[in-house]
Amino acid sequence: MGDAALDVIQTIVLCALVLLFVGMGVNHFRRGPARVMAAMIPPRLRRRGLPSPMALVYLTGVCEIAGGLGLAFPATRLAASVALIVFLVAVFPANAYAAQHPEKFGRGAIPFWPRLAGQAVLIALLVFVVL
Fold first, then answer.
1. Which of 60, 64, 121, 128 could form a disulfide with 25 if both were Cys (CB 3.0 to 4.6 A apart)?
2. pTM of the predicted model, to two decimals?
3. pLDDT given for residue 103 in this prediction
């Protein structure tokens, strides 16, 4: 595969990631999805002195939107990619908790191994767009 073809693929993946992260971030501010995401916060993170689950949902939404927008600009792409990789690792416990409780989360409870594979693919794509 030539450099031009690789550049086109990288640009397509980049655009898809920008749309994906911004879209997922915006979803954190929709009432229904936000309530489900707040319920996904594991019990060990629901302690006095920590932000409320809904505050965490809003914070993670802002992180996803900022990260997605950061990917769109060459000057911030590397930092945004690294931040989104850290973000994906940080939110994985909530996804794992949801996977353990499909009766509570329905479609949001993606089984553990497919969820882990999906996170790994996103991380690999984030690395790919900054190479």
1. 64
2. 0.91
3. 87
